[in-house]
Amino acid sequence: MKLLLLLVAVGLCSAQYNPNTKAGRTSIVHLFEWNWGDIAAECERYLAPNGFGGVQISPPNENIIVTNPNRPWYERYQPVSYKLCTRSGNEQQFRDMVTRCNNVGVYIYVDTIINHMCGSGGGSGTHSTCGSSFNAGSRDFPAVPYSSLDFNDGKCRTGSGEIENYGDANQVRNCQLVGLLDLALEKDYVRGKVADYLNNLISIGVAGFRLDAAKHMWPGDIKAITDRLANLNTKWFPGGTRPFIFQEVIDLGGESISVNEYFGVGRVTEFKYGAKLGTAIRKWNGEKLSYLKNWGEGWGFMPSNRALVFIDNHDNQRGHGAGGSSILTFFDARLYKMGVGFMLAHPYGFTRVMSSFSWPRNIVNGRDVNDWMGPSSSSVSINGDGTCGNGWVCEHRWRQIKNMVSFRNVVDGQAFTNWWDNGSNQVAFGRGNRGFIILNNDDWNLDVTVNTGLPAGTYCDVISGQKEGSRCTGKQIGVGSDGSARFQISNNDEDPFVAIHVDARL
Ligand code: QV4
Ligand code: CA
Prior knowledge:
Elements: H1 2-12, E1 27-31, H2 36-47, E2 54-57, H3 91-103, E3 107-112, E4 116-119, E5 124-125, E6 134-135, H4 169-174, E7 180-182, H5 188-204, E8 208-211, H6 219-226, E9 244-247, E10 267-269, H7 271-282, E11 307-309, H8 333-345, E12 350-355, E13 363-364, E14 367-368, H9 399-410, E15 416-421, E16 426-431, E17 435-440, E18 446-451, E19 457-460, E20 467-468, E21 471-472, E22 476-479, E23 484-489, E24 497-501
This protein binds ligand QV4 and calcium ion.
Calcium ion is lined by residues 115, 173, 182, 216-217.
C-alpha cells in the first residue's frame, strides 16, 4: 500500500518544468566539451559569483572512440555504456565537479543519450572511453548489458534501417537516426537500465537532464522512464524536488512530430527562437526588430513555461541539426551579442547561454568541412584579462553576456513593459521598474527619449561597461523622476545597444 501511494505520488508530481536553479539565478550555460575539473573550477571562480544558475555538461557516459575523423566532438553522442568516463574525466572527477558546483549553488544538467547507442558501423572491440567491449554489428553492449533483443531493428520498416522520411513519425522513432543503433524503449528492461543510469546521476547530485534526440523517442516511453526517477539529492535540494527535464525536439513546423506531444514530461527546446531571432537581427526576409513587439507565443512559439531557449547550440552553430544559416554564433560576434542581450532581457522561456570552442571553419559548397572538429586543447586556460585561451571562446565570460545574465536575474518576475520602436530596427523595452534595454540595429544613429519605467537616478550601461564600486566604466544614463531617459546609440558603436538595471545605479 505504502509503495503504491509512493508510486502514485511520483507519477502525479511531475514538476519537471522547474529548472531547480537557486533563487535569483535564472540561466544556465552549456560548457560544451569542457572537462569536469575545469567546470568545477569555473563554478567556484566565475559562475557562482556572476549569478549563473547551472551548467549543461557534455555527455558523461562512456562513448565509442572515433578515429576517422580524429576524435570528433560528436563521438560523445555514440554511447557504449553508462559508466562515467569520457575525455571530460572519470567518475571520481565527475563526482567532485557535482559536489563543488552544488556547494556554490551552481547546478549540473546532464546531456543524456538514451535514444541509441553507437553507430551501426562502429565495429567491435574495446575502442571506447573506459575500454568496455562492444560489438555494433551484433548489437552487443556487455557493459550495460544490452543485446540484439534491446534494439528496434525488427520494428523499423525502411529499406535502409534509417530514418528516411521525417513526415512519418513511426520512422522517426523506430528507425536509426544517422545509423545510430536505436534502443527499444518500450521494453521494461531497457527502461530500467536507462532509469538506473539517470538515478545514479541524481544520487550523485545532478539537478536535471537534457534528453538528446527526444523527437526520436515515443513520449510515452520517455514518461515511463522519467516516472521512475528519484527526487533530487536532499543534500542540496529540498525534499520532493523533481529533476528538471528538457527534451531536444527540433520542431520548426511542417513535420509529423510536434513539440506539444512532449509537454507532459518536461520542457522542450524551442528551435524557432534562435532561427527567427537570427533572421530578424540579420534583417533577412524583410524582418525588422520592430516586429519583435509580440516576441514569444505571438510568433507561434510554444508556451513560455514549456520553453528552453537559446541563440545557438552545439549543433546549429556548425550546421548540424536545424535552424539554418540565420543562426547567430560567436563568429558574428557583434550581432551575436545583440541576440543574446535581447534573449536575456526578454521574459520568454528558460534561457541557456552557449559557451563554445573555436575551430577553423571552412565552408565548401555551403557546408563546413571542419564541422566535426573537437576542441584543440583538453583544458581551458584563463588569460589575465579574464578571457579564455587555447581556442576556448567562453562567450559566457564576454562582459556584455555576463552582465545580461545578471540583468535577467535582477528583473526576474517583472512584466514586459514600455515597448518602444521606430518602425524599423530601433527598439526598446523594460522589465517593470527593474531594468531597461534599447537596441539600434538600423544603419543610422539612435537619439530618443523614452520611458524606462525605472526610478530616477544615474545608471551605468552594462553593455559598454559596468559598475565597478561606485564608478561606471561605460556610458552613463540619467533617468528623470518621470522615468524618462535620453539614449544615444551610434550605429557604429562597438555594441549598438544599452542596458540598465537597478543594481547598476550609481
Ligand atoms: C553515418 C551515415 C549513416 C550510416 C552510419 C554508419 O550518415 O547513414 O549508417 O554512418 O555508422 C555521426 C556522423 C554521421 C554517422 C553517425 C553514425 O556525423 O555521419 O552516420 O555518426 O556513425 C551528433 C552529430 C551527428 C553524429 C552523431 C553521432 O550531429 O552528425 O553522427 O552526433 O556521433 C536531427 C535530430 C536531433 C539531432 C540532430 C543533429 O532530430 O536529435 O539531428 N541532435 C542531437 C544532438 C547531436 C547528436 C545527436 C542528436 C545524436 O544534439 O549532437 O548528433 O545523438 O535534427
Ligand atoms: Ca528511437
